[in-house]
Amino acid sequence: MIAEPQLERDRAESALAAASVAVVIPAYRVAGKIGRVVRGLPEYVRHVVVVDDASPDGAAAEVEPLCSQRVRLVRHHRNQGVGGAVLTGYATALALGAEVVVKMDGDDQMDPAYLPMLLLPIMRGDADYTKGNRFLHGYALGRMPLARRVGNFGLTFLTKAATGYWNIFDPTNGYTAIHARVLRLLDTDRIARRYLFETSVLLELRRLQAAVRDVPIPARYGDEVSSLSLRRALLDFPPALLHGLVRRLGHQYFLYDFTAASLLLLLAAPLLLFGVLWGTAHWYFSYATGVPATTGTVLLAVLPIILGVQFLAQALALDIGSVPRRPLHPDLVFPEADSRLTHRSSLVGYLERDTGDEP
User: Which residue stretches of the chain are H helix?
Assistant: First the structure.
């Protein structure tokens, strides 16, 4: 008699084998590892797309002997960054007719045994996009140095605020899966080509109101050195995330809709601005003249700030409650003649438009 856990695994693999699953692997400086990654993918993965992003270490030569009807190697003649490589892989996977597309790195840190955990929520219609989270297991956080842990928490909070996905953690995790119907809607002009790729995808998914879910997947660490430097995390990410936050709030609450949160933000902004400017001006006047500010003057500064903070907190609570829960892809149908699918910023036709490289 087959044990129940084994029976569940067999059923899951049967369901995955019936679907058209593609795995996209950007390859840059992963010689010695990329071949092991490709060979380790389970049989139910129908398409494997390896994108050689002009890697100087011979990674492509390691993949060439593995090429087949299942495994395809796409070459970039110039380096386009991880985002550019993945977008090329996404476009190739769509052209191959993939139903769900997974993105894995070529450094062998992402265990293919966890692929069903990424794929099944999408195939069941519970999510449009799934991503790994290394820190849902406490031991992973415990192994991380304190400074890096604090930085990760700060980066995560800024990403949550910018994207509006308050339900996720580990935002730079690149082990992801997305339904092809949602993938076709991504605006490639809004997606970063390099280190902000994962975050920019989340920003674009939030614009579409796609449902995103975290999946607990531990990383397999070897002798790899992280390419995410402290300087980049401190200087490059915060301004980009602030820009993403402002753009998201403008689109979500003022351009495409107007809700109670919109009204609260409109009330909070002038109150906070007036309170801070009024208080600062009169503090400076008191400091320069030595004349203490009157009670009324202080109240005129404090009360608007208190009200503004309260309105802002209520708007934040409403924003947290507005995280998309209902997936888009079950309701998406694309007529073949729909001209919007060939818009220059969509993934349809991306290979010809942006790469000039031959698959």
Answer: 4-18, 34-39, 59-63, 81-95, 115-123, 138-142, 146-163, 180-183, 197-208, 230-231, 237-250, 260-289, 295-321, 350
- The answer to whether 201 touches 162, Cβ cutoff 8 Å, is no
In angstroms, rounded to a whole number, what is the distance separating the alpha carbons of residues 125 and 340?
A: 24
Per-residue pLDDT tens digits for 62-112: 999 999 999 999 999 999 999 999 999 999 999 999 999 999 999 998 999
User: Which residues make Cβ contacts (< 8 Å) with residue 91, sequence separation at least 6?
Assistant: 347, 348, 349, 350, 351
Tell me the pLDDT tens digit for each residue of 153-186. 888 899 999 999 999 988 888 999 999 999 999 9
> Can you give the pTM of this predicted structure?
0.87
Give the span between the Cα atoms of 304 and 106, in whole angstroms: 53
Number of neighbours of residue 316 by Cβ within 10 angstroms? 16
Cβ pair 30, 106 in contact under 8 A? yes
Element (H, E) at 130: strand 129-133
